[in-house]
Write a structure and sequence with these properties.
binds zinc ion; globular; three-stranded antiparallel beta sheet; Aminopeptidase; 430 residues; twelve-stranded mixed beta sheet
Amino acid sequence: MSSAHRFDRGHTDDLMTFLAASPSPYHAVANTAERLEKAGFRQVAETDAWDATTGGKYVTRGGAIIAWYVPEGATPASPFRIVGAHTDSPNLRVKPLPDTGSAGWRQVAVELYGGTLLNTWLDRDLGLSGRVTLRDGSHRLVNVDRPLLRVPQLAIHLDRGVNQDGLKLDKQKHMTPIWGLGKPNEGDLIRFVAEETGIAADDIAGWDLMVHSVEAPAYLGRDQELLAGPRMDNLLSVHAGTAALIAATASEGLPYIPVLAAFDHEENGSQSDTGAEGPLLGNVLERSVFARGGTYEDKARAFAGTICLSSDTGHAVHPNYTERHEPGHHPVPNGGPILKVNVNQRYATDGSGRAVFAAACERAGVPWQHFVSNNAMPCGTTIGPITAARHGIATVDIGVACLSMHSARELCGADDPYLLAAALTAFLEG
Ligand code: ZN
């Protein structure tokens, strides 16, 4: 379905701003929190005692954020409606002793984060972002958003077979970015980061740094019906979920407590204190019940009535590789959000979930599509099945169809982010 300019581009313009301003999960959390604050949400600390007040609240922990809105009239047993997503994307991350080099080049030692499509990081102008931890335990965001590093590809003259035999990259030897000339000096990168952020280098006690493409997101295509940009897996869903949560708070008589849960570490299996496999979401929901005077029984009742729509990117049909896709299920850009099905529970969707998602799309007036893998192709997974199993919460896997998933620059339909947000809003409103 082609639908160029069918919708106001305001949502997608705003997504482009969010993507560009969120090179790391820590930035994604800060930018989400800022949007929530503007909408009247208030941060609560995990270390404080929580109270029974109504309204919008959120908790942040590293690269994760959980936000919820307690409407007037909510009871301790009121069920939740959760939009799940993740803040992290595959990339290159700075090693503990970063200063390295070879043959007169200064380089930065990196680890590979998640299922990185390595070739897409070659010959790009890369910036540096993340956070530093100061001696007092506080954090500062870092964003050097200009061409600073590059992983240069070997010239074709020195790799004559590359186009016939395919590009072969050694993960340890070939992915080390250059960032200047001269001899590597110990402490150089962190001194540079200190200067860039206006902190004394001696105050920096730890860091979580990564590289990002500095190229801005852009509309693409004959009618600009596509969107090219970094980290759409899965900041597209974080952004849509934030917009949906804020929109849902305007609705009168909410029968559910709407929640946004954006986790870190999805790209490497979600096993961390800020990942979906950890207790963060369960703790927040449980504490929210208890803070409103609820008992264990209330919590069990609330969880039993709770539904999670877990939103993440999926594969649009690739015109040059149609044989890799399921021939009867071809999601296309701008065809609306996708319902992701895998009977082996790589996705948590079942028939009941399909009904919930279809009802939300119908209420929002949004078209939607099915995704299922070709039986000969292994299926990816996401936080949906983890949320379902960890918390015993009914979960439906959905998302947006993209090309070039896990590339440093992905591609999706320019209308789909808006369509997803509209469906998520209808879901949260019940
Ligand atoms: Zn993802």
